[in-house]
Hints:
Blueprint: H1 7-19, H2 21-48, H3 50-53, H4 57-77, H5 91-103, H6 106-118, H7 129-156, H8 163-193
Helix pairs in contact: 1-2, 1-5, 1-7, 2-5, 2-6, 2-7, 4-6, 4-8
Amino acid sequence: MSAPVGPVNIMAIRHAIQRGAREGTLVGIGAVAADTIYAAIAVFSVSAVTHFIEGQVDLIKIIGGVLLILFGARVFVSHPHLEKSGQSASVWSDATGAFFLTLTNPGAVLGFVAIIGGLGSWRPAPGDAVGALGIVAGVALGATGWWAFVSTLVSRFSAHLDDRWLERANRIAGTLLVLFGLGIFIDLALAILV
């Protein structure tokens, strides 16, 4: 969910270019905080209502798969823009901005619900707080690792980055989201065939 290049990625990339990987990562951690909140809401909500939706698992997977494919397609065709010159805001104001941008993005919570709902039997059983916390921790650690990786990469190769590079990154992220959505449909088809 952190990979598509949007406003938060642009802020983090700008900080990494201008001030180094540490500041880029710190900006990204603002988004990680919001992603972790949404992951917790999604995993505990999906687990809490599992008893009521046991018969609707296939429908949830279909809706989740469609949402992921649509979101991936939108990311794939987007055209982000990066300005290397100029002065960025402070790392703390941009990290706070990244938190609120992510928190107010309705696609973020829908994406997490779609992904967690699409896990099917890999989703923690109702009442499995340890499993649910494991998924939330995985989201937090994975997203933090993503921001550290991107910020380090950007700070090392900042002279070679341009809008075309951002578009390629979005094409890769969009393709992966679409493939994950298609994987949900393949899983459904295999379940029907078996």
